[in-house]
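Attaching the record inline, Q. Sequence:
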Amino acid sequence: MDILSEFFERTNLQGRLFFAGQVEGTLVLDKPPGMAFIHVISQGGIDMVQPGLPKISITEPSVLFCPSSCRYQLRSSSVQGTELICASFQFGRNSLQPFPLGLKETLVFAFSELENLGPVIASLVGEFQDQAPGRTKALNLLLEYIFVVLVRRSVIERKISSGLLYALQDGRLGAVFTRIHEEPEALWTVEKLASLAHMSRSKFSACFTRIMEISPMGYVTAWRMKVARDMLRDGVQIKVIAASVGYSSQASFSRTFLNVVGSPPAEWLKRDVSGEDAPQLTARVLRDLPDDSIPENP
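Structure, as predicted:
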């Protein structure tokens, strides 16, 4: 099985290009939680400034792969300005984020390290500047490809050492996630999951929690609620959804949904359709912005 393909198919990766142009000053992002970024520096230099950390200077065409936890500013270090392309990523709309990437810090890849990305980036900018039919779909497909290439590279170089992408490639845990994803309705217990990993209950639970930062049954519930939200959007009746994700009654499913998501299924769907809870991202370029303007915490 192609594990990375399976991951992307099941998690509904959504990418959005939100900025492409020249930066003369500092690019400031007001980003919601759970949103990762890719920044493409096609010309000029950039300094990535983070609170309490040394400044990172990029002086050649590069791609920055930034996890959702990062807080930073991107400052042009070139007199003539810097050509920058920025995209945001989420795993499904209004995701509860049970699928962490495992990235702890921003990764920097020079163009020379990334095979075949030059033409893709050129196509990305062309689609962004054009208003041709199908533009949104084309942009998302190109962004997904870039994202997959960066994840692939990060895995090869062992720069991802926790989270779902790391766990999927673990010879023991990979089988566990595959079964959870394929059979959310199964009556899972920690013991059953541990047997799939050929580990003791205690060793499996500790290993899973260390890598995923969530308990095994906590992940099962999060995945079930992810599947349930997808089915709600597709117009499936709640009683059918309840059985499909492993609940013996509609009432028990609705209670869990409320506890995990924060609102009853019908109310959540109404807000989702209206876009009321859609994350808002803004980007602006400012000049002479001091370092202490960067927030310390997510």
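The chain is about 40% helix and 20% strand. The longest strand covers residues 13-23.

More tomorrow.
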